[in-house]
Design a protein that fits this description.
Layout: H1 12-36, H2 43-49, H3 61-84, H4 98-108, H5 117-129, H6 133-168, H7 176-187
Length: 206
């Protein structure tokens, strides 16, 4: 049996506690250093990893129908945005492919007479209903003159489309008539109304 002398302090317990505290501090420092050794995740990545509880299933038929309508509306909005920026995944068949994309760029890079079709047609239509014979005559000449310019400009556009497509895709497997008609029909639309939206500026070298 070990006797404990009076006045003598037992230093074993404080020493063990100090060692434990030092070990804990060292572990915390190592963990902190390891955390600083890797890059801090971005905010969107951190938010992407946050997986909250899934939404509860609809309890009524009306709620299920409302949720289905919301999902369909979100899908249609995404499809419209994708088609507007020219994503082939959302485009109709007639607009898909690199050849059609090139044709659109050729049309959008130039000023086309066909772009003024709606304005000239509206002016001519108003002029033909005016009771003044002179105004009606001028409106008729304006309309015929515009159609002549449209035919000439469409011919120039078709030549340019064929040349550009032949340079970029020399395999010759493209249907010339379909490409030309596609480009001419796009050229008759006002630039801001074209769909998909133009990707090139006026005067750009395509």
């Amino acid at each position: 049996m070990k006797l404990r002398l009076p006045g003598r302090r037992d230093h074993a317990a404080p020493t063990d506690a100090a060692n434990a505290d030092a070990s804990t501090d060292l572990t915390a420092q190592q963990a902190q250093a390891a955390g600083k050794g890797r890059p801090t995740p971005r905010r969107n990545e951190a938010q992407g990893r946050r997986t909250g509880p899934p939404p509860p299933p609809p309890t009524t038929r009306k709620e299920a129908y409302k949720r289905m309508r919301q999902n369909q509306a979100a899908g249609r909005a995404d499809a419209r945005k994708g088609a507007a920026r020219g994503d082939d995944t959302y485009l109709p068949v007639r607009d898909r492919g690199p050849v059609r994309k090139l044709v659109r760029d050729v049309v959008d890079s130039r000023r086309n007479v066909g772009s003024f079709f709606l304005a000239i047609a509206a002016v001519a239509l108003i002029g033909t209903v005016v009771p003044n014979i002179a105004v009606r005559t001028y409106a008729t000449f304006l309309l015929f003159g515009f159609f002549i310019l449209l035919v000439v400009d469409s011919f120039v556009l078709s030549r340019k489309i064929n040349r550009k497509v032949g340079e970029r895709f020399p395999d010759g497997q493209q249907k010339t008539g379909g490409m030309v008609w596609y480009g001419i029909s796009r050229s008759t639309m006002i630039r801001r109304w074209r769909f998909p939206k133009p990707d090139v500026a006026l005067g750009a070298d395509v």
